[in-house]
Design a protein that fits this description.
With 395 residues, the protein is of the alpha/beta class. It is 39% helix and 19% strand. A hairpin with a 4-residue loop joins β2 and β3. The longest helix is centred in the last third of the chain and has 25 residues. The structure holds adenosine-5'-diphosphate.
Length: 395
């Protein structure tokens, strides 16, 4: 069975064609600058190919992707009918879905109704579905896999905020959490590795956007991102959690509208805003090594905040068996992993520095000698979660 995984953004569309026999991507790539001048498709199949072509909308982009997949020179299949189903990444399930679902008209309506909760991402994600409906053979089954769904198991005490209950009931203001497919993938891998279904795990998805989750017995019980992906730890350009009164204060000081202020917290903040140098941890490490104090401070703020979440979630679950690092920073930045774990010896977390510094394919067990808690680096694979759910639902 071959599953096409689509992740449609507002001006981009990433894809993977996954062969479920091997669970390997046989082709992958992405379209960029959709609806803008200079759009192009980068494809990797039998061969690598960049195709510069006009893409006024997602429909044209999907058509180009499908053409690339069946191309005799760099494609990997001989006809579109070899694609058994399509799995779409959809950011927000609201409170309507607690797992992936087969796409129907009703599902699309519900997704549209949740647009208010993710006004930038949800419409873009849906264009991926509409484009496939128009361009692919009629009746090709499609599945929606939600970023938020894995966190639907959180108890009320973790997701209801300390504001009037009516705000939750009437306006759906609550913690939803994001990066669900990633937290789910790495926690499932960790459970297999540990051979313990009941393990208490803290998963740190640390990338441009970062979130940390508490996972007890395979279920998400708390997570750091909340109503939007702006909450939680400070990130590349996002502030993370703040005293909400800061918004009014900033608006007055900088003569911002609320929208401008939220944009400032999303795009100008985080480690980029603190350092004034970059959102990329490689640049920050270089800056700090060269004596740039604000780069060092940005890294300190990040690792300190992550460490506090790990401690808080260990407390919330009454212990921790395993700490997992994943995503761009979590998988690649040994220094940051070490800094996060550095003051956690008191609760049994010890990293082996040599193992932490090495690169392996697959899971890197970096647990130190005498550590009560397993510490694992696990490459994430959100596309595989989407493909697996799609294959399971379309049978
Ligand atoms: P996204 O959230 O966009 O999916 P990623 O998970 O790919 O992001 O993470 C990208 C970030 O990972 C980069 O901005 C950079 O900070 C960090 N990163 C990637 N590679 C390295 C590396 N070798 N060392 C340190 N940080 C890295």
């Amino acid at each position: 069975m071959k599953i096409l995984v689509i992740n449609a953004g507002s001006s981009s569309l990433k894809y993977q064609l996954i062969d479920m026999e091997t669970e390997q991507a046989i082709a992958k790539g992405g379209c960029e600058r959709i609806g803008l001048p200079g759009s192009f498709l980068k494809h990797k199949g039998k061969a690598e190919k960049q195709i510069d072509a006009d893409m006024p909308d997602h429909k044209v982009a999907i058509k180009l992707v499908l053409d690339a997949l069946v191309n005799p020179e760099y494609g990997v299949i001989s006809s579109m009918s070899e694609i058994n189903a399509v799995g779409h990444r959809i950011v927000h399930s609201g409170e309507d879905f607690d797992k992936s679902v087969v796409v129907t008209d009703e599902v699309i309506e519900i997704c549209k109704n949740n647009t208010e909760l993710a006004p930038l991402h949800q419409p873009a994600n849906l264009t991926g579905i509409f484009a496939c409906q128009e361009v692919m053979p009629k009746g090709t089954p499609m599945v929606a896999v939600f970023d938020t769904a894995f966190h639907s198991t959180m108890p009320q005490k973790a997701y209801v905020f300390g504001i009037p209950y009516e705000a939750y009931k009437n306006f759906k203001i609550r913690r939803y959490g994001f990066h669900g497919s990633s937290h789910r993938f790495v926690s499932e891998e960790a459970i297999k590795y540990l051979g313990n279904e009941n393990a208490k795990i803290v998963t740190c998805h640390l990338g441009n956007g970062s979130s940390i989750s508490a996972i007890d017995g395979g279920k998400s019980v708390d997570t750091s991102m909340s109503f939007t992906p702006l909450g939680g730890v400070p990130m590349g350009t996002r502030s993370g959690d703040l005293d909400p009164a800061i918004v009014e204060f900033l608006c007055k000081k900088l003569n911002f509208t609320v929208e401008e202020c939220v944009n400032y917290l999303n795009k100008k903040s985080g480690v980029s805003g603190v350092s004034g140098v970059s959102s990329d941890f490689r640049d920050l490490a270089k800056g700090a090594a060269e004596g740039n104090e604000r780069c060092a401070l940005a890294l300190d703020i990040f690792t300190y905040s992550c460490r506090k979440y790990v401690g808080a979630y260990a407390a919330a679950m009454g212990g921790i068996d395993c700490l997992v690092f994943t995503a761009g920073i979590g998988e690649n930045d040994a220094q940051t992993r070490l800094a996060i774990a550095s003051n956690l010896e008191f609760m049994g977390v010890k990293i082996d520095e040599a193992k932490n510094a090495r690169r392996v394919s697959g899971i890197n067990d970096i647990t130190g000698e005498g550590s009560r808690v397993k510490v694992l680096v696990i490459p994430t694979n959100e596309e595989l979660i989407i493909a697996r759910d799609t294959a399971n639902l379309v049978g």
